[in-house]
Amino acid sequence: MIGSGFDLGEPLFLHFRRYAMFDYNTRIVILCAGLLGVIAGMVGVYLILRKRSLIGDAICHAALPGLAISFLTHVAFGGDGKNLFWLLIGAGISGTAGSLAVIGLRKWSNLKEDAALGIVLSVFFGIGMALFSIVQQYPQGNAAGLENFILGKTASIVASDATTITVASIVVILALLLFRKELKLLCFDSLLATAQGWPVLFMDLLLLACVLIVVIVGANIVGVILVIALLVIPPASARFWTHSLPKTILVSALIGASSGIFGALSSLLIDRVPSGAAIVLVASGFFCLSLFLGSERGLLWRVWSLGRQRIRADQEHMLRAIFELLEYQGKTPHVHGQLRSESVVLSDLVRMRAWSATRFKNAIRQICNQGWATINEEGAATLTASGIQQSFRAVRRHRLLELYFARWADLSPDAVDRGADYTEHALDDDLLAELEKDAIVMGDSIELPKSVHPIGS
Q1: Domain boundaries along the sequence of the chain
Q2: Is the Cβ–Cβ distance between 318 and 367 less than 8 Å?
Q3: Which of 173, 203, 318, 359 has the lowest CB atom count within 10 Å?
Q4: d(Cα 367, Cα 236) in Å, to the nearest integer?
């Protein structure tokens, strides 16, 4: 914990000002927590794209034996075992051994990556716990504070730690910026990178080195157990907001930094809340927010998007039904020069679409709101000039798909119609041009192909 909680007799803004704005230790803690969130968020994006998020977890657990061995070695040479530099060096060596063990098991055995990660994680963690029990038997063991490396102790950060974290953050950020193109190719198509002669193994090792630096830096802030959360949660949250890699990295870094800063402040303002746990909980809150409100993959966005797609599909189906009914009655609208079509009775449309009354009324109301149709006092629908254009395009696209399915898929007319209904709304201009080319080759009319299942048939 950073602070000692609320003073009920003191306003919140005075409490925040007194501790956060003018307390030197608090500013260092917030700075370090924010920097950790930035580099963890940036590195985590590449780990997720490389589908190696769990390797960060393996490195975190593999660092524990190094901490214990470093302590025991330091004590054996007459030290007190509290030297932070040597403890982190030991954690780095052990984490490197763990990551190399994962790579070795994958490369020279038939084990899949998840099995190799599980083996390395469990074995190194078991060794670490066994060595920690030995450490606790030493007089210096209880005072060494090694347990802080497991769950973290943000309040123990001093100016020298801040310098180390700042330098490490600069190194990681520069590495990711300098090799951004190579890492992008590695994450999206490693086989192509190998075929083009890119040093894939070197790039993997570089990525693992960045993960190792994040683990070492995060060990003293949130602990080696919780640092994996900062490697996974911010990038996972960022992917709900954008599909662009640079934007994903930026959003992930912002979420990581915000998690570190607000988590540290939460520990300051709320009594007995560990900083590491608070940081992870804030990151989880950002994830839940992104899960529901993300502008690209959020649940609410998906519901809204699917609803919009269904509305557009119903509009096109209704326009097509009106056009084809007019065509069946010998009143085919002219695309050029006709301001309004003939009228069709709504009851005939109801029989054509076989929709529920609510869905039918909504579709009619929507095309009227768009200005594509009007309803007269007798309850008959009439297409406007823009409605004729829209309905013609919908019918033409549907029938080109029907011709394609009927010719190449060998389906019944009803199945062809259903298949065209399901796929016509996903057609882009390139696919439509391919359908037109196929129709021209086979001698079909592409202006307005005949339906494979006329209404009267």
Answers
A1: 12-297, 302-441
A2: yes
A3: 359
A4: 39
- Domain 302-441, architecture per CATH: Orthogonal Bundle (1.10)
Q: How many angstroms from the chain centroid is the CA of residue 390?
A: 36
- pLDDT tens digits for range 390-427: 888 888 888 888 887 777 777 777 777 777 777 777 77
Quick one: average pLDDT of 134-139? Answer: 75
Cα 228 from Cα 220, distance rounded (Å): 13
The pLDDT of residue 4 is 45
Rounded distance between C-alpha atoms, residue 96 and residue 196, angstroms: 28
Contact of 2 with 29, CB cutoff 8 Å: yes
Residues making up the chain, counted from first to last:
457
Q: Quick one: DSSP state of residue 379?
A: S
Q: Which two tokens stand for residue 29?
A: 């803690």
Amino acid at site 139: P
Give me 114's structure tokens: 């998840």
Report the alpha-carbon distance of residue 280 to residue 263 in Å, rounded: 7
Burial class (CB in 10 A: 0-12, 13-18, 19+), 457: exposed
- 140: which residues sit within 8 A by CB, 6+ positions away? 75, 80, 81, 82
Is the domain spanning 12-297 CATH 2.40.10.10? The answer is: no
End-to-end CA distance of the chain: 78
Nearest C-alpha neighbor of 286 from the set 333, 222, 233, 223: 233
Residues 383, 323 contacting (CB under 8 angstroms): yes
